[in-house]
Structure formats: structure tokens, C-alpha cells
Design brief:
Structural class: alpha/beta
Number of helices: 5
Oligomer: single chain
Strand content: 15-25%
Distance between the termini: 27 Å
């Protein structure tokens, strides 16, 4: 069985070089890269990027580079297209067709090897699962509490609550979970090529298993770098 780790990160970001900025003295990308390397079940390791600096850091960590076309590395590019490009590269150049593909976002240090293993094991035990993703509970930003702007500039609800009782108390609302955007474990036959997966991440398929965690996040600002360092120190996961 081919279980493949795919690191993904582009160089064109509002925070310059964010994927390789130092976090506790090591490049940010090294944390997901090394977490994956500790998982024995993963037998292939790739990095997809348009940026040679990112590629070189990952190569030094034991990853094979896939140079991503500039057309797939703009701010408006979709992640799915970069993943498909990488999978096609593996097939054409290395004759590798992943059975399970773990896609890592290079700008998140909040990754544990045990979470990765858990995701792989879920799929190995139940092949009907399309994907496994870390999620965290967030009641403050519950969709029932969200508002949108009407054309006249007034606020309105996203949902029709005519026949629904909605408490102003967040603790009384149905539990709400958000994707962590640190990694996704894809059961390839049910996920990446899915045409009817759950929106907006259709490529995760329609049978998504959660790994419920306390906290995970990605890096967009220098404050997020500091936040990542605190997270790593607190869990003692300094690779």
C-alpha cells in the first residue's frame, strides 16, 4: 500500500517567507515535515512548491521536490489543483499511485504524529471513510450566530429560523467544529476525485471522520509564529 505524505506551500504570501520562518529556531515547515517522518506507515514523502527556498528546506528533511507551476501558485489558485498536479507527478515520474495521501499545509506547526497515525488507522479499519481531518470546537463563531449584509446595508441571518429555536447562549447550541487546516488524510478512492463531496472542500469526499483536538491553526502573521511556539512548548512536541 502506498501511503504518501505531501507537504504543500507556496512562496507568494502576504507574510514573506512564512513557510520557512524560524519557529523555536527551526523553519516552520520542519514541524509538519518531521511529524510525518515519525509515522512508520508513511512510505513516500513529497514537497510541492513554486519556491526553491521552501523546496530546498524540505529536501534537506528527506522530501522529494515537485516544482509547482506558477499558474498553480497564485493567491487565487485552488489547493485541489496543486494536489492533483502533485499526484500526477508521482504517477508519471515515480510510478506511485497513492492509496492514502496525507496533505500537509506547510504553514502549520500544530501537527502531532499521533494524530497522523490515528487518521491513517481510521481508514485502514474502515475503507468507506473518504477523509480524516483534525477539527476543533468553536461555539463563538457558530454558523447560527453569523450575519450577512443585505443590499440595503442591514444585517440578516444566513438561515431561515422560522421553525427553529436558537438560543443566544452558545453553550446551548449544537456543537460546532471547524477544520484545523494543518493536514488532511485522504482515502484516495473516495476523496480526491469525488464529484459530490461536502462543500466547499469537495475533494474530502462525503464520509469525513474527525480527529477532535483542543487547538490547531496555521500561520498568517508574526503573532501566529509566537502562538505556534507557545503551542509547541506546551505539548512538548519540538522536533
Amino acid at each position: 500500500m502506498n501511503i504518501v505524505a505531501l507537504l504543500t506551500g507556496r512562496g507568494n504570501n502576504t507574510l514573506a517567507n512564512k513557510n520557512i520562518l524560524p519557529v523555536l529556531g527551526k523553519p516552520l515547515i520542519s514541524y509538519p515535515a518531521n511529524a510525518a517522518k515519525k509515522v512508520d506507515k508513511i512510505n513516500h514523502f513529497y514537497i510541492s512548491s513554486d519556491d526553491e527556498k521552501i523546496l530546498n528546506v524540505a529536501v534537506n528533511l528527506g522530501y522529494k521536490k515537485i516544482l509547482r507551476p506558477k499558474s498553480l501558485a497564485s493567491a487565487s489558485s485552488k489547493h485541489i489543483d496543486a494536489i492533483l498536479h502533485a499526484v500526477e507527478y508521482m504517477k508519471i515520474n515515480d510510478n506511485i499511485i497513492p492509496d492514502i495521501l496525507i496533505v500537509f499545509l506547510a504553514n502549520s506547526a500544530t501537527v502531532k504524529s499521533e494524530w497522523i497515525e490515528q487518521g491513517i488507522n481510521y481508514i485502514l479499519k474502515d475503507n468507506s471513510i473518504s477523509a480524516v481531518v483534525p477539527v476543533y470546537q468553536e461555539q463563538d463563531h457558530h454558523p447560527y450566530r453569523a450575519k450577512r449584509l443585505n443590499k440595503d446595508g442591514s444585517l440578516d441571518a444566513f438561515f431561515d429560523f422560522t421553525d427553529i429555536e436558537v438560543s443566544t447562549n452558545r453553550q446551548e447550541l449544537e456543537p460546532c467544529y471547524f477544520l484545523g487546516h494543518n493536514f488532511w488524510v485522504l482515502n484516495m478512492k473516495n476523496s480526491l476525485y469525488s464529484k459530490n463531496g461536502q462543500k466547499p472542500w469537495i475533494f474530502l469526499g462525503n464520509n469525513i471522520k474527525p480527529i477532535i483536538v483542543n487547538e490547531c491553526f496555521d500561520v498568517h502573521t508574526l503573532e501566529d509564529i509566537k502562538k505556534s511556539e507557545i503551542w509547541l512548548k506546551n505539548i512538548n512536541e519540538i522536533y
